[in-house]
User: Fold this.
Amino acid sequence: NVTDFYFDLAYDKDPKEPGLYWGGFNNTKDAFASAPFDLFKTTTTTPSGQLIDIDKTFKDRERLQEKNKKNIIGVQAQLWSETIKGDAMLEYYYLPKIIGFSETAWKEREWEFIDDRNSREKEILNSWNIFANSIARKDLPRLYSIFGGFNYRVPPPGAVIENNLLKANSEFPGLEIRYTLDGSDPTTKSTLYEKPVKVTKNVKLRCFDSAGNSSRVSLVKYE
Assistant:
């Protein structure tokens, strides 16, 4: 499954993000929210992000029969090396994506048996929120120090300014978002974002985990 398990694809569309995009983009949630025994259930968007009508698009496709599940011995992720320029880049590509993949490979989740799309996606979101919070609070800080530390990716915050209010969020619950209004890059001592705040100028934001490792800077322009 290229779009979920080829880890040399870029995490997102940002031109600062390294990686290929011929098969779309993938992040930790994509690797987590994949149903190996019924990929049609979790193929919900095109590589460019457009929603797919699963029932209509895949209605005539051949499904894996229950009796044939025994023929599948596992799932595999790929990381092709042609764009990798060293150990740090290698680690950035697969961490923390491989943590989400490991959860998928471990066992079937309850939501994989839900046929109704809305109910299934609700359960996926609930499961992801718990899992992502654990990644931010436990796994990332562990990766910071274990075996000398890894160059894992901390996702940058998403943010908008609407009606003079700065609104921000993070991909992983449990990460801190800190911001500045003076044009400097945020540090662990910068103002902590806790709720929408009134602003009248450009804002720089950055996510931090509890080990102090950070994402790249997000810039939101005031217009």
